[in-house]
Amino acid sequence: IAPRVGLDIDGVCNCALFADFDNDGDQDVFIGRSLERSLYLINRGGRFENSPSLLDGPLPYWASALAAADVDQDGLLDLYISTYRLPISKPTNILAHKFLDEKQRREFIRRRGEDHPVFRLSGPPNVLLLNQGNGRFNREPQAGGADLWLNSFQGTWSDYDNDGDPDLFVANDYAPDHVFRNDSGHLVDATADLAGDELQGFGMGVSLGDYDNDGLQDPYFTYMYSKAGTRITEMFEGLERRMYEGVTGNKLLRNTPEGFRNVSGDGPGQMQVMKAGWSWGGQFGDIDNDGFLDLYVANGLYTPPPGTATEVDL
Length: 314
Known about the structure:
Layout: H1 2-5, E1 13-19, E2 28-33, E3 39-44, E4 47-50, E5 63-69, E6 78-83, H2 95-99, H3 102-112, E7 127-131, E8 137-140, E9 151-158, E10 167-173, E11 178-183, E12 186-189, H4 191-195, E13 205-209, E14 218-222, H5 227-233, H6 241-245, E15 251-256, E16 259-262, E17 279-285, E18 294-299
C-alpha cells in the first residue's frame, strides 16, 4: 500500500518514526535517509505529503536513528536525529565537502584535527528540532552539546532523574557514549558526573528500563563483546583501559542517587549481561510476566572458539 499512501520513497532509508507531530490526532512520519535529505511527511487524511519548509534550512543526510519527546514541555513532540557517516573522517574523502555546508565543513575540519582513530572519531552533527506548533521546527544550533559531531547509532529519551522531563542518552561508535540531563528544556552534558569513564566503547544502541523496580530508569548500552578481541587484549600488559573496554561487552548501569553504577559483570551483585555477543541493540520487557523487566539483545557477528573450522565446503 506504500504507493497509495505516499510512502514509496526512493533512496536508502535508514530509519522512520511515526508520531503525531502536528497534534491533529493522526500519525505523521519522519524518514531518515543517508545520501539524500531526510523527509518529514504530514498525514493528510490517510495520505502522506512532503513538508519541505518545516525549518530554515534542510534536514540532514546520514540519519541513523530518530527519537521523539516533548523536550520543552509545551505539549508538542520534538525530534532528535542521530547521524552516522564514518568515512567522512578520512582526509581524502570528499563526502564532507558534498554533504556539509561551509560552516559545518569548517567545524568538521577543526574537530578532525583533535581526533583519535579509535577513541574519538568525528562525524556529522546530530540535530535537535524543537516543534513550534505551526508546522515548523526550530533547529537548535548546538543543543547543549548534543550535536556531538560523532558517529551516533542511536539517541533515546528517558526521564532518569524523575523530574518530569525527558533526558537524552546517545550511543556513539568510535567515541564515548553521552548522557544529557534536561534542565527545563535545556540539555546539559552530564556524562562525566553520572558515569565517569564507564561509557567508552563502540556504542551500537541504548535502551532504558527499571530492571530493579526501584522507580528509577536504568540504561543498558550495547557494545561489542569480542572473544577474539578479548584474547588479544589479555596478551598485553599496560594496555590502555579504553582499548580493553572496547571489547568487553555491554553495560547495564544501575541508576542510584549517587549516579550510575556498572552492574554488568559476572561477580557477586552483578547482573551477568555483559557477554551477550557482538550486540546491535537491546530492549527491556517483562517477557515472562513475573513483574520484573527482562532483556532481549540482538547480536550480529560471531567469533568461534580457537581451532574451529570455518568456511568448510560440504
